[in-house]
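Field: COMPLEX_INPUT
Field: COMPONENT_COUNT = two
Field: RESIDUE_TOTAL = 311
Field: MODE = joint
Values follow.
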Amino acid sequence: MRIEDLKRIKQKVQNEIKLREGEHRIRVIVSMGTCGISVGARDVMAALLDELSKENIEGVAITQTGCLGMCEKEPNVVVEEEGKPKIIYGYVSPEIARRIVREHIKNGKVLEEYVVMEE
Amino acid sequence: MMREIALHLLDIVHNSIQAGATLIKIDILEKIKEDLLIIRIKDNGRGMDEKEIEAIFDPFYTTKQKKKKVGLGIPLFRDTCRQCQGDLEIFSRKGEGTCVQAYMKWSHIDRPPLVNVAETMWVLICGNPDVDFVYFHCVDKESFELDTRIIKQEVGREFYTHPEVQSYIRDVLLQGEKRLRKIASKKGEDLL
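Field: COMPLEX_OUTPUT
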């Protein structure tokens, strides 16, 4: 880690960020209890983060939470968007996670076949 | 059993986050000369009293009144340590924080590999932007350190979650870990 690198990134990001509003419009939550972790939640979360930066999508907050109580359907990914029903995906693999970013978050198309709950 | 030590780490650190920690120090000490691996996670969360500490070693412990649920994570990790001639200890004081220390024989045949510590740390850092992490990993005298407080200070809190900053953090972690892994596997060969 070098301080000059951080300064350079800040400069770059500062210029870009003027173009958009600050608030997060979508929240993505990865369930990371012991159950989720043991079946690959970490790799799912890494895939989400990676795909978001590849697709250059901003305004999305990714956070982690504990067990959702659906251990048998882990890894679970929750997508919360203002004014829309909360979508919970189950049995998510890193590949499905990338599709969630490209299809759901970017284009608003829910991946019906992997939805385990809608609230 | 988890396939990677890194996954145990991810699991245990989650307890710290749930306990309201704002600063979490993570040490991975590979003392290959002494044939010892130590994983230490120290937080400033709400802490526990002796009764609570005892209870979390019980995998089926639960009380409805308690907001904090502690499940299988700690007993699972302790089992792994004990299989590898080590143990897991918890030091905690109510209101001050908790320290979980796990140690095991580095060269033990049953010891799971560390594997992807870089990705684990990356996921923790990006998934919990309000928490500060001080990560330290050493292989004997060679070491790697990452302090998110410095990153926040330099890039500013408002840009800390920007994808550009996040992928920078990943690169730093990957590079640091790769270097240590090389050193460790070379030293490990001498040991066996």
